[in-house]
Design brief:
The chain is an alpha+beta fold. About 35% of the residues lie in helices and about 15% in strands. It has seven helices and ten strands. Strands 6-5-8-9-10 form a five-stranded antiparallel beta sheet, covered by helices on one side. A three-stranded antiparallel beta sheet has the order 3-4-7. Strand 3 and strand 4 form a beta hairpin. Helix 2 packs across helix 7. The chain starts with a helix and ends with a strand.
Length: about 300
């Protein structure tokens, strides 16, 4: 049995070696075909994040079975990862890349989504933390209003949002900082941390939207009464904050409710991950007795 395993392993290594020569280290997306024993990140501090992004096809192993967690990322690496996180499927032409470039389809989808806004296209560019942060903010501005403006330093929202780890260093202008270093490069292992965080949040938003839809369908406004049911889901906090015209505020976090619609100034429904403060969805009902809602996330 051991002899068979050695022969089998040798055959796999030979195939991968030949494949690596033919593909010139173009990313491999089917990680399941690569033997785990060839992995170079088993003892890496970001191993769990790397396992997550490979499993969810957000990043890849190279043809030789390595992940190369300490290798600096390129612009194309991060663009492809962000497109994978959001599951983007439609794009628009990107003339800067040749038709046979492996990342062309990712750039086309990223351009349509706004991820490339204000970014000079250079797929082979090794990115510093500031440049990577701008792509992250661009990717998330379609989801959260707070990111829909220009920042002096994009590293600040990236660190404060948990996408990039805080680090001693300096801003691009050379001013020292103990938290928002802009100049160092991001590694593939650090990108794995970023993409895992963003992917989980993106999936959370999708689930939260379903919860918000269920809540919205439960609402009734008739005979001067605003009523409905707050749904309860494991891992999420749902809440309805009602501000009355006399400035009193009432918070409802579960079950059925019935309120006098004529006394309400507005009501705001939010869904968050349990124990967290950031809203995954936030809808405001401001024109009662109508049940029109507006996203304020």
């Amino acid at each position: 049995m051991k002899r068979f395993y050695k022969l089998f392993s040798s055959a796999i290594v030979l195939v991968l070696t030949i494949g690596a020569g033919l593909s010139a280290l173009v990313p491999v997306t089917n990680a399941a075909q690569v033997p785990a024993k060839l992995s170079d990140y088993q003892n890496h501090p970001h191993r769990d994040a790397i396992d997550y992004v490979v499993k969810n096809k957000l990043m890849w192993l190279f043809p030789d079975g390595s992940f190369q967690p300490d290798k600096p990322i390129t612009q194309a690496d991060l663009v492809a990862g962000l497109v994978n996180v959001k599951g983007l499927t439609s794009g628009e032409p990107v003339q800067e890349l040749p038709e046979n470039h492996w990342a062309k389809v990712y750039y086309e989808r990223a351009k349509r989504d706004g991820i490339l806004d204000g970014v000079e296209i250079n797929p082979n560019k090794v990115m510093n933390r500031e440049e990577a942060s701008r792509l992250m903010v661009n990717a998330w501005k379609s989801l959260f209003r707070l990111h829909r403006h220009d920042y002096q330093y994009y590293i600040i929202p990236a660190v404060d949002s948990g996408w990039v780890q805080a680090k001693n260093g300096a801003f691009l202008n050379g001013v020292s900082t103990s938290r928002y270093d802009s100049l160092e490069t991001l590694t593939r292992g650090e990108q794995a941390l970023t993409l895992r965080f963003l992917h989980k949040e993106f999936l959370g938003i999708q689930e939260a939207e379903l919860i918000a839809t269920q809540f919205h369908k439960s609402l009734r406004s008739s005979d001067g009464t605003f009523r409905g049911t707050l749904p309860s889901f494991k891992g999420f906090d749902t809440r309805l904050a009602v501000q009355f015209k006399n400035r009193d505020v009432k918070t409802i976090d579960s079950g059925n409710f019935s309120l006098n619609a004529s006394q309400i100034d507005f009501a705001e429904f939010t869904v968050k991950f349990k124990g967290e403060s950031k809203s995954l969805v936030r809808y405001r009902y401001q024109n009662l007795p109508t049940l029109n809602r507006v996203s304020t996330r």
